[in-house]
Amino acid sequence: MSERRLLILYGSQTGYAKDTAYRIARQAWRRHFSVSVQSMDQVDKWSIFTTTYPVIFVCSTTGQGEEPDNMKKFWRFILRKTIPYDALSGLNYAVFGLGDSSYQKFNFPAKRLSRRLQQLGGTPIVDRGDGDDQHYLGLDGALDPWLENLWTVLLDQYPLPKPIVPESVAPDPSCDIDYIDEHIDTSVGKTELIPGTHLAQLVKSDRMTAPDHFQDVHLFEFELDDSTQIPQWSPGDCAVLRPENLDSDVNDFLQQMHWTEHADKLLQIKPRDESIIPKWIPRCTTLRWLFTNYFDIMAVPRRSFFEMLYYFSSSENEKERLHEFTTSEGQDELQTYCMRPRRTIVEVLDDLPCSRVPLEYIFDVFPEIADRSFSISSASAVTPHRVDLTVAIVNYKTLMQKPRVGVCTKWLLNMELGRTVGLRFAKGTMKLPAGPTPIIMVGPGTGIAAFMAFIDDRVSRNISANYLFFGCRNEHGDFLHQEQLQKWVSCDKLQLFCAFSRDQENTIYVQQRVREQGDLLWSLISEQDAIVYVSGNANRMPDDVRQAFTDVIADHGVDDAAAYVQAMVKTGRYQEECWY
Fold first, then answer.
1. Phi, psi of 7 (to 5 degrees)
2. Which string of b and e fits 466-503 if b means at least 16 CB within 10 Å?
């Protein structure tokens, strides 16, 4: 039998797949496998053809069934038509996907990857696993039994050389971290820019909704730095921001961890595997810098956080509680304690005063701050130096005493005008036609964000076949971008249909406006090949809007209207970009 090695490759957008990959790695270590964990785009792609040991793929889903950013290059590579059909005949693999079954394209990246690996001759070790956020235990509802099956099969092929390392034994830390002398020349806080980052200055931060409206929606305008090459983005693209924790939150956390005294003392970080820590993290820095810029202390902790924290508790009562959270039987209690009320890491540590993380384990315990993507509301063809973002401020209540607030939106709200930040650009899922083809846009709430760029771009090209269905609660409360929309209407560049759901006794939503304009819409769709775009909250709206279009088409004599709409989806004439 070949050597006891495993390669774990992940594609992760928000950190869940990466967290799962390292959880699998810890379990493999206990079973005496030598393990390497990398993102799919980090690995030497050609080496996959000669790998003689099992490869475990873990991938999440982003957008509308899209691959995560750090999987895209790998995915394009293995799709090459020049790859022989038996190129992976020596590969044994397993695939686990992370997704949400309430989305139409549930776990599409994992399904496509598994199918492609098999097409190229690969042999699945176990059936593909499909983690589902909708399961009452979350992703673990599918992951736990899948892992149990995986280890049963692998240990049959690779018998244990000695007993499994007990769960009571902590794994080795990923890094060696030591305080260093002040006089050593360092680059504290001087980080490498993440590739593709452009510097931009915040020049405007205005509330768009009425002061007494329950939801705060802000318009943030960023001016791109003239000293760097000005990027070209397309209508529908996103701006990607990496937020920071606020100074007040960091100070409270450092005090909570008894690290205040050493917060600004220089640290040297020596990763045991360079792939563990991003290159833009300085290897000589401070705790304050790390917990401001890299670690997400305001995140809702995942199961792996409790698994690791268990090893560092000096209280038997706390250890017992932490252990229960790490078992399959304890997942319902973990959901009740942590996930449902959205309890943060800081709040969990408040509840567990005898559980503190050793310095060398910080990269193994605390999650990374995830990038946030926002649809761009301005068109580069019109304002090439300006990036507008229409952002709903995350602020809501749970059973917890303090309101829950979003890390990124809180950071943006507290940002002073003139502050320079890094922006990256990412392709959106909705594509605008190059020519004058009519477009029908349905965008309630902040779903209008990308459509502002759509209309702005087309008006600059003197295209007037633009039809927008916008919905909100009140005309005088949350009619976003009202002034600009009405300007376009007044110069005959836009036909606007609004649904103000609470301004009359009976609620009115965008799908009702779609039905009311059935004759116009059918004419645009059937005679002018109009493209339909739907953007906004994914709760019920996308299904309701699709049903409204189906009804319109059926009302105009099409026997199988649902199939007609599905054909529009397949040809790109019905596009959705929705989120929870």
1. -115, 125
2. bbbbbbbbeeebbbbbbeebeebeeeebbbbbbbbbee
End-to-end CA distance of the chain: 47
Residue-wise pLDDT for 441-476, tens only, equals 999 999 999 999 999 999 999 999 999 999 999 999
How distant, in Å, are the alpha carbons of 70, 110, 376 from that of 66? 12, 10, 19
pLDDT digits (tens, 9 = 90+) for 535-577: 998 889 999 999 999 999 999 999 999 999 999 999 999 999 9
Tally of CA atoms within 13 A in the half-sphere of 156 that contains its CB: 8
What is the total residue count of the chain?
Answer: 580
The torsion of the CA quartet 357, 361, 363, 364, rounded to 10 degrees, works out to -90
Residue type for position 372? R
Integer Cα distance of 73 and 92 in angstroms: 21
Mean pLDDT calculated for residue range 109-114:
96
Q: Please tell me the chain's helix, strand, coil percentages from 3-state DSSP, rounded to the nearest 5.
A: 35, 20, 45
- Residue 298 structure tokens: 């305001």
Looking at residue 122, the DSSP 8-state letter turns out to be -
Query: pLDDT tens, 129-156?
Result: 999 988 888 888 899 999 999 999 999 9
| Token pair listed for 251 | 């100070």
- What is residue 192's predicted lDDT score, i.e. its pLDDT? 64
- The first and second tokens of residue 159, run together, are 């018998």
Tokens in use for 281?
């993290």
Query: How far, in Å, CA of 391 to CA of 78, rounded?
Result: 37
Report the C-alpha gap between 127 and 484 in whole angstroms. Answer: 53
Q: Which residues contact 148 (CB under 8 A, 6 or more apart)?
A: none
**Strand pairing partners for 222?**
202, 387
Q: Which two tokens stand for residue 48?
A: 């996959």
Is residue 60 within 8 Å of residue 67, measured between CB atoms? no
207 has a pLDDT exceeding 60 = yes
- Report the chain's C-alpha Rg in angstroms: 26
